[in-house]
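Lab channel / #folding
Pinned by the channel admin:
"Please post every new chain as: sequence first, then the structure tokens as a reply. Keep commentary short and put observations after the output so the thread stays searchable."

First post following the new format, from NK:
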Amino acid sequence: MHNVAIPNPENPMLTQSTAQQFARDWIHSWNSHDLDAILSHYAPNVTLTSPVVAQLLNQPFGTIEGQDALRSYFSRGLTAFPQLQFELLDFLFGVSSIVLYYINHKGTKTAEFMELDASRKVTRVVANYSADKT
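Reply from TO:
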């Protein structure tokens, strides 16, 4: 099992160490291609907005909702890109959000803004991609 930190109910704000551990675990889950480990970071009611969703699913708003839809989408991506690997460049964190900045399997930069609930599960993701390779 992955070591996502359990929140302190007396201090729900993310700390640098909690955010860093979340970032490492998230990247490791993706690089291991373990769909259940990947999904363990997301709340059941998660929404994800991405230009890739818009393109692959022909969904004009680029948004999918719920962990079941996320499972299907992520499974499709892992199958389509068996060489998928992410390299974490940096992370930024706020009170209850984190931005992961990484190089994706295509060699382009990605930034994902994630809002977290009190259990440190992602409830909303907005993905952004660079146009050029690094």
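NK: The chain has a mean pLDDT of 90.
TO: also worth noting, Strands lie at 42-49, 63-65, 87-93, 97-103, 108-116, 122-133.
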